[in-house]
Amino acid sequence: MLANIENIYKYFNGELLLRDIDLTIEDHEAVGLIGSNGCGKTTLLNIITGSEGFDRTPDGLGSVSIRSNATVGYLRQNSGLDSKNTIMQEMNDAFSELIGIRDKMKELSAKMASAEGEQLERISHEYSELSAFFEARDGYRMDVRIRQVLNGMGFANTDTSQVVATLSGGEKTRLALAKLLLEQPDLLILDEPTNHLDFETLMWLEEHLKGYKGSLLVVSHDRYFINKVCTRICEIQQGRIYSYKGDYSAYLIQRKMRDERQLKEFEAQQKEIARLEDYIARNKVRASTAKMAKSRQHMLDRIERVDKPQMFEKPPKIQLGYDIEPTKDIVRVIGCPLAVGEGDKKRVLIKSLDMHVRRGEHVGIIGANGIGKSSILKLIQGLIPHDSGNIIWGNNIRISYFDQEHTALDRHNTVIGEVQRKNPRLSDQQARSVLGSVLIKGEDVFKPVSVISGGERAKLYFAIMALNRGNVLILDEPTNHLDMQTKEVLEDALAQFGGTIILVSHDRYLLNKVADRIIEVRADEVNSYEGNFDAYYQTVTAQQQELAQQQQERKLAEQAEEYAQNKQRQHRSKQQRAEDAKRRERIRQLENEIEDTEQLIEKLEAQIADPQTASDYSVINEKCSQLDEARNRLEDMMDQWAELSEKI
Length: 648
Prior knowledge:
The protein is about 50% helix and about 20% strand. It contains 19 helices and 18 strands. The chain has helices at about 40-50, 85-95, 95-110, 115-135, 140-150, 170-185, 200-210, 225-230, 250-285, 285-300, 375-380, 415-420, 430-435, 455-470, 485-495, 510-515, 535-610, 610-615, 615-645, and strands at about 5-10, 15-25, 30-35, 65, 70-75, 185-190, 215-220, 230-235, 240-245, 330-340, 345-360, 360-365, 390-395, 400, 470-475, 500-505, 515-520, 525-530. α5 (about 140-150) runs antiparallel to α6 (about 170-185), α9 (about 250-285) runs antiparallel to α10 and α17 runs antiparallel to α19. The two termini are about 80 Å apart.
């Protein structure tokens, strides 16, 4: 057992936030902590890490214990980095112990050069122990690990000498997470780690955390991330904590079963409470039965009340339907440039966009922030102009558009007035009924749109869309600001919608449940993938693996070719050296022979010039023949010597 929390209570401004919290975290376990906003998730993390105190039970119980010598790393919603450090200094700080050992090893190595006898033996022993420790903790791969994590967390092209203070808030959060991953604490606690991460970084982080050697405690609203990483889900509900084995999908099934069971217990208890209260009310005033009534009152007071499950609190209703069947081809975009801004600030995001959406398709559009996803939705609706290309809509099209900025709403109008502005024939009662279906009731319907929350504005939008009955839904980040319950209701409504959906979202759980085709937008590139987000992820992963394998094969082939060329060069060099040696030897022989021949020529010329020889014709003739032969041989040897000398 790595961590154990028992009987924890927490009051906030006199109100009970957490009650009787029990939580155990085992070794190599990944726990997802979920719950509605304000339920106490971050408070519980602070209690576990000791940065915030807790309240004990009325009996004085309550404890938080972490296993001795266990390390804890906590990624808060603010980074906690040293703003004066560079990126690389922060990364190296994760290995401060190993770097200290490496420096000590260098110092010992220098001492061993001059040490002798027992001193040398002692230094060598210390060096050996440090070296074993350093190697066991993968110290020789520190630089490689730093580069891998920085690349994975989106800093591949970032100058590591850049000062932390110059980074954006999102970059600081990513860097703080990278540092924690390098530190590898026994218990890694992450509070909303997926904020500020694009899809590629998210996918890398998920794979990295799935292989994490320690234990994880994660708070996140990203249900897809929780589903991928966590092996147990703990939910804070009505101040208590409930544990469920498995991932988020398994939690949903178990949660429904528990809530149904709890509802039966709640209803049975309510009947028993009503029976006791009725008995007490009828008998407490009569002297003959007052004692029995008092006994029943004690029984009633001792009952530990069962909470009514939140699941059975009335959820919002979002019903999306349409009346007119459109043509088979909903919209075709042919060679349209996508540009934003005007004049000098005009920026081309996509030079030539091609896209085709068919009737009944649920298309999810994904991509990095600022890549142009929302602009594509505006482009196809004619809300932003295009200089060339064509956008062709089919017949019988009725569009319902959800704009993430809610610009179509008049913020000065009341909530009910906005519904009636969009649907003038609705009576007040009908408008209130529509708003009640999305849980906007009572006096809230008369509030200005500007003062209601982002989640309530989204619900208002969905109510208006339901009335519009469009057969093509164009949705831009529809789950932003929504609570979990409303997200689930919306997902079910969209998944069951028989019309066409064109959806931009970062919510991968939504994309996985609703989309049957994914369009990925990259820099001046648009690619289409059949299936939901899981199918897209598998395809992209397979492509990346294939590309990596091809790159590895090319690298191995290049290495093999380089090796062969080196071997060939080495072979030629060896052969060349042998040939050069032969040439030099032959040159030495020729030089000796030339010298001998030149001496012979001088001797023959002297003999021919001798008067005694000149009188003998036959001798002269022989000497002249020998002289010609020697001169010819000398000339040949000189030619050979010159040719060989040029090759050396």
